[in-house]
């Protein structure tokens, strides 16, 4: 027997309509590419998203068409999020930090029909336009007076495009399983692969973000999205924000410590989201200027994900900023959110050092995400916090296959997706990432976690950034090499660093050597690029004793 409840598809347009009726005055504050702030409301976004939908209808955009963007976090990008998906087309956010050849590959693979771009990327668009075969027109996200002087056929102006269009638009009633947006993984191995999100997966994921054990997002929040809108939909925040009417603060291209701190202060930010490197820059700014964030800011939660949050970073936020850290884990293939590290009632009386240990973990699964760890034979491992194995996930906002079937079958017979991460799960359900399967250091048949070593090294006051890679070793197969970037004006010898680590990790984990570099290679999404680093140190030999 079927239930007798209304059968309404879960659509992105309905999130916008809800914001328009329940939170029309909630603000979207954006730092523009030109520099000044721009302030508008959900009512403005809704009105202009409808004008955009009408404009795209006049451009003959069809349901299912891919519409590319090369844009920072800003209000016009927000209009594209709702206008494009709402009308049934697919918003394809492209990461502008990728190599031009990768961008060309992605736009051609997705067969983007139109490409919207911020002025910062005008030269890039000029370079790539002749090779983007499917793109019918390139639309600069600006007004007539600031149009770039570039040689691009079919160059349009965004403000001209939507100007004069009606702000009345009846959103089509789509199948909730229809594709709404897409994002390519950074393709650390092989070509990037497209992950195609649906209206349904997006809505369910957004609901999870709004729960208290998610980000606890509400209309009382002013949320700063340092995580880019071109990377997994800014972790779903534009949709979740509209769903609960949170004020959104969009930083544009200015992601340095000073700009971020100023935005936090002037926009009274309560929640901020980003990867560890961004937060390290912020903390260095605070340290260098002797600022007092606990007094000057209203920041009460900071979401850290995309890479492991070092303990020292968590400690500074908790103590100096008086801000609760929500350590999260996920991946593009998971929309991206899988786990959030929140506390349980049993932690109420825990000491600070115990809480910091807890928050070094990536957290517990949200409703909607099932997780398990398995060994090399596929047997499930116990949730004892010790046994580490391949982390598998399953759920309604997790990928079932890549766009155009690239990579073939990616789920096992029971529907589990292998994340490529190695992890433990403890008896309370807290998952901790040990490593990416391809980065783990195999020493004498045991595994050494490069992440644990890196996080410990970051705790040293002279270390700005650290990476650990495996170096071939005749006896042990591989041994760890610590590669560090020192803070400017600071020094730390190999002996000092190893002595510091000695009290923090098992003795047989201690790196065999320390190398000093000026900078570490990062991926387009700000992660350490271990493959490149391994290449850099390919000829490096350890003194084998
Ligand atoms: P990519 O395009 O490189 O796949 P993702 O953002 O999808 O970019 O990367 C997902 C991966 O990032 C995860 O599989 C995991 O290895 C790593 N990751 C994400 N969050 C964390 C975290 N909190 N701690 C450790 N690793 C993380």
TrEMBL record:
Record-level Gene Ontology MF annotations: ligase activity
Entries under Pfam families matching the protein: AMP-binding, AMP-binding_C
Coiled-coil stretches: none
Residues annotated as transmembrane: none
AMP-binding enzyme C-terminal domain: residues covered: 453-527
Alphabetical keyword list: Fatty acid metabolism, Ligase, Lipid metabolism
AMP-dependent synthetase/ligase domain boundaries: 37-403
Cited Gene3D superfamilies: 3.30.300.30, N-terminal domain of ligase-like
PANTHER family: ACYL-ACTIVATING ENZYME, BUTANOATE--COA LIGASE AAE1-RELATED
Entry similarity comment: Belongs to the ATP-dependent AMP-binding enzyme family.
NCBIfam families tied to this protein: PRK06018.1, PRK06187.1, PRK07008.1
Protein name (record): 3-(Methylthio)propionyl-CoA ligase
């Amino acid at each position: 027997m079927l239930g007798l409840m209304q059968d309404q598809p879960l659509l992105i347009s309905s999130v916008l309509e809800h914001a328009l009726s329940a939170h029309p005055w909630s603000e979207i504050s954006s730092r523009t590419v030109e520099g000044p702030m721009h302030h508008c409301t959900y009512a403005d976004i809704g009105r202009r998203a409808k004008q955009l939908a009408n404009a795209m209808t006049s451009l003959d955009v069809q349901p299912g068409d891919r519409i590319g963007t090369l844009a920072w976090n800003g209000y016009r990008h927000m209009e594209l999020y709702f206008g494009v998906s709402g009308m049934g087309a697919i918003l394809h956010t492209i990461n502008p930090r990728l190599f031009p050849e990768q961008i060309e590959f992605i736009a051609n693979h997705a067969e983007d029909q139109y490409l919207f771009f911020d002025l910062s990327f005008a030269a890039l668009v000029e370079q790539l336009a002749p090779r983007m075969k499917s793109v019918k027109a390139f639309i600069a996200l600006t007004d007539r007076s600031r149009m770039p002087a570039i040689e691009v056929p079919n160059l349009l102006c965004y403000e001209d495009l939507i100007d004069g269009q009606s702000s009345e638009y009846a959103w089509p009633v789509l199948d909730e399983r229809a594709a709404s947006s897409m994002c390519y993984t950074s393709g650390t191995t092989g070509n990037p692969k497209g992950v195609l999100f649906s209206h349904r997966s997006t809505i369910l994921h957004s609901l999870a973000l709004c729960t208290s054990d998610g980000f606890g997002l509400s209309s009382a929040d002013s949320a700063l999205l340092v995580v880019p809108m071109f990377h997994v939909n800014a972790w779903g925040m534009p949709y979740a924000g509209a769903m609960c009417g949170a004020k959104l603060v969009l930083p544009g291209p200015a992601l340095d410590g000073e700009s971020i701190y100023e935005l936090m202060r002037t926009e009274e930010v309560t929640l901020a989201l980003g990867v560890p490197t961004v937060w390290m820059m912020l903390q260095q700014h605070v340290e260098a200027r002797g600022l007092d964030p606990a007094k000057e800011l209203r920041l009460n939660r900071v979401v850290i994900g995309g890479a492991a949050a070092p303990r020292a970073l968590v400690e500074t936020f908790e103590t100096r900023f008086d801000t609760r850290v929500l350590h999260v884990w996920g991946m593009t293939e998971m929309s991206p959110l899988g786990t959030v590290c929140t506390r349980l009632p049993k932690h109420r009386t825990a000491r600070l050092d115990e809480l910091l240990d807890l928050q070094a973990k990536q957290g517990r699964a949200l409703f909607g995400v099932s997780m398990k760890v398995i060994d090399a034979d596929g047997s499930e491992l116990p949730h004892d916090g010790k046994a580490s194995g391949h982390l598998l996930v399953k759920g309604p906002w997790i990928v079932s296959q890549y766009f155009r079937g690239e990579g073939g079958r990616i789920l096992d017979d029971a529907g589990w997706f292998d994340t490529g991460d190695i992890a433990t799960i403890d008896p309370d359900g807290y998952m901790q990432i040990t490593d990416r399967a391809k980065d783990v250091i195999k020493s004498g048949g045991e595994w050494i976690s490069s992440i644990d070593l890196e996080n410990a090294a970051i705790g040293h006051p002279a270390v700005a950034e650290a990476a650990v890679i495996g170096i071939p070793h005749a006896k042990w197969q591989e041994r760890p090499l610590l590669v560090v970037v020192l803070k400017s004006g600071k020094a730390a010898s190999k002996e000092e660093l190893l002595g510091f680590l000695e009290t923090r990790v098992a003795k047989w984990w201690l790196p065999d050597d320390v190398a000093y570099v000026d900078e570490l290679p990062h991926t387009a999404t700000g992660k350490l690029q271990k493959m490149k680093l391994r290449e850099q140190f390919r000829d490096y030999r350890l003194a084998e004793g």
